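Hello,

Following up on my earlier ticket. Below are the two sequence lines again, exactly as submitted.
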Amino acid sequence: MLVVQKYGGTSVADVDRIRNVAKRVISYREKGDKVVVVLSAMAGETDKLLNLAYSIDKFPDEREVDVLISTGEQVSSALLAIMLKNMLCDAVSMQGHQVRIVTDSSYTKARIATIEKDRLAAELDKGRVVVVSGFQGIDEKGDITTLGRGGSDTTAVALAAALQADICEIYTDVDGVYTTDPSVCHKARRLDKISYDEMLEMASLGAKVLQIRSVELAKKYNVPILVKTSFGDGPGTLVCKEGATMSMEKVVIAGVTYNKNEAKIVVRKVPDKPGMAAKIFTALSDAKIVVDVIVQNVSKKDKTDITFTVSRTDAKKAYKIMEEMAKKIGAAGVSIDEDIAKVSIVGSGMISHAGIASKMFAVLADEGINIKAITTSEIKLSCVVESKYGQLAVQSLHKAFGLDKEEIKEEM
Amino acid sequence: MLVVQKYGGTSVADVDRIRNVAKRVISYREKGDKVVVVLSAMAGETDKLLNLAYSIDKFPDEREVDVLISTGEQVSSALLAIMLKNMLCDAVSMQGHQVRIVTDSSYTKARIATIEKDRLAAELDKGRVVVVSGFQGIDEKGDITTLGRGGSDTTAVALAAALQADICEIYTDVDGVYTTDPSVCHKARRLDKISYDEMLEMASLGAKVLQIRSVELAKKYNVPILVKTSFGDGPGTLVCKEGATMSMEKVVIAGVTYNKNEAKIVVRKVPDKPGMAAKIFTALSDAKIVVDVIVQNVSKKDKTDITFTVSRTDAKKAYKIMEEMAKKIGAAGVSIDEDIAKVSIVGSGMISHAGIASKMFAVLADEGINIKAITTSEIKLSCVVESKYGQLAVQSLHKAFGLDKEEIKEEM
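Thanks for your patience. The regenerated structure is below:
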């Protein structure tokens, strides 16, 4: 087997934890596997370096920020290689410019273009563990780049794709992907398997286990990802494509997600003619405000209400922009509601199952929870509710869709 | 003018000091100079990283040690580039692999083979300050290497040589090269100029201002080095070849150096036949013991005494090896004297001046100081004396050779 293992910052936070990583790597080598290890910076290091940069400049030069913060991963890769050699396991560290992980030149958020696998493969063939610094690459000019927060996940999946690895294991401080946030619903259950699409919806909605780009990449190249804890031997969660090995039929819904950091803005009685929505959302995008849910209600008498949510930190700014916009386009007014939560159910099975939406609405109605906005995609259904009901909504939906621990007799 | 400036660890120890470095760089740019800056790691960082490695392995893998410790310089170069851009001075950082400072593969003590100057020169032509990480390079395989302690001095001189810079300025925490150690003789005087050869003797004898390799390199490529403090505006000391601009005639001796960290060992009555010295010094070198002074006294009755000094930390080990050796080669015995100091006078003018040696011996005799061993080179004369007389010897010689502050009316 060729295995790519990625360890996050908490897994390499100190020398003792690095020793544990080395032990795990060696246990794979002893089974005869070829192992590529991808590491993040030691916990806290990236922030420490960034704070140095910010103490000089609120908006430090981004090329130089990448030069600065890529050192964090360089340090961990060297330390693990030293540890492995100390434990008599042949190993070699490689930086982005040594592997040649070539990216575009979008400093601090670069995207991988190509990975040269020849030197990597040659080192593996010599029986060495190759320890690659995550998060970093190099552009065509030879400048150092980084892939953005969580970028080491993407490095790992990209390497796994390039090397056609059998599996990409992501070691983190949680033991897998859960049906919902265990802090919101104590009956949350670890999933044995989840599809790429479901994981994409779960990740973007707040189940922050994997960087979303890494899941997109894994889907594109069909790289199976196993999310595991580095602090034990749990089986973890396999993120893979839907297929024969998955019995998705029994459970239609994979998880329930919850986001209480949004605010809802309604622009009332917008004239119902072409170009209105474009004006509104261009103004927001010009102000660098990211819009999440967008709902345009049925129009009445040539007027329509446009509802959207933004992150709570952008709410005041978005509200002001909309007040001006309302005057300009002849809308009746703007209202803001910061007291909301967004609750979503995610599941690839949804699309082929009738009655999922009506069941969700019924569950919420039974609890006396009023729905303020609804959006749907093929595998996700989101409802905006009053924030005080958010947690209750998650718990009720989790139970109603058969996700609670007690009700599951066998694994999915 | 094309100027290469190197700043040591204390000059970039924190953000405020990095700001001062940026101010100085900008003042040169405003005069129209092209500037290349070479930086060390922030003070203490290299040791911090090394201690991490040593906490894993007493003898950590050297390739990986270089990967690890080269990050210190990468951090400082990025921070200075961020600072310069914040102060509206266009700048770009470059690592060893980006400049392509190509070295051999002797990890932790690599030697520079070639420097590609094209990208560097292109950046300078764009009006940018180029901030190069000192101490690091890359070998033919693309592995990261480092040049050994003080290696940033060598980086700076090598860049100055490659770019044919007008001057290489080395900023440090002292304001120049002194005639002797000011803590031993308070009348020590800063030299305005010193020749490469004198500086080589001064550096190796304990005036630890410049890495000795950087001086060798500067001599080879005739790069003028100006040693200055980064904490003020002193004129510093120019290290250059002897020539028309130097009036070396007036002062024959450039400085007096002092080393009290050696021990003297005498192997007595060694049979005076070929191969004896080779046997003795091969045994020491096999034990990785570095020998400094070697004196073979005139032989009497086919027997000769061989005297040498080693660092005090190696003294016990060297003594034991010599005891065995004495038996093997039929010498009479071995004696050790740890209570010594080595005092030397250095000066390019010595060779053409009669009477320097006799004057030195007379000065010491006048103070009642007995000389235990003498060695000479073309520009250096060293005497081993009892350690309690070391400081007195330095002060007396400093005065006798006209180096005291008060006696100098005009600069050399």
